[in-house]
User: What shape does this take?
Amino acid sequence: MGIAQRDEDPLLGKPSVEFTLPTEARAARQVVARLRATAAEVRRIHSFRGGMGLAAPQIGVGRRAAIVCTPDARGPIVLLNPRVVDRSAADDVRFEGCLSFFDVRGRVRRPVHLVVEDQAWDGTPRTTRFNGSLARLVAHEIDHLDGVLYCDLMAATDRLIPVEDYRATEAAGNY
Assistant: This one.
């Protein structure tokens, strides 16, 4: 589906480059349009009960843009030049998956809420607080923009497990 795969695309391990907004708003819109189209295709083929996200490096673009599709009917959340500016002291550990290595899942510790600063198309700074599963999705996509994969954050004692094994666990319904 045109999504970069782990161990095949070195762009996934590199920090992405910020857009200069509003000067590069057109380029940012083009990247976001590609993200939306790719996400729509993925969602046409697979269902994601807990939502899903996609970052520009996953479609071969080393720029700092991502989208997060929520489980409700709202359109995707667009993140331009996002960075985490605050996070909860409390965290939890849950299984995550990734479109860049779709056939496995792994347990990752994430904050239960985080505050993200990003930019609107015109360059205006925005600050948004994300909670629960949405915070996890947003953190995962920002990690992609920083060149970090979720398996890099797993505890040394944890291992990636095949999706079939994950689906058989009680945790599969909790994401």
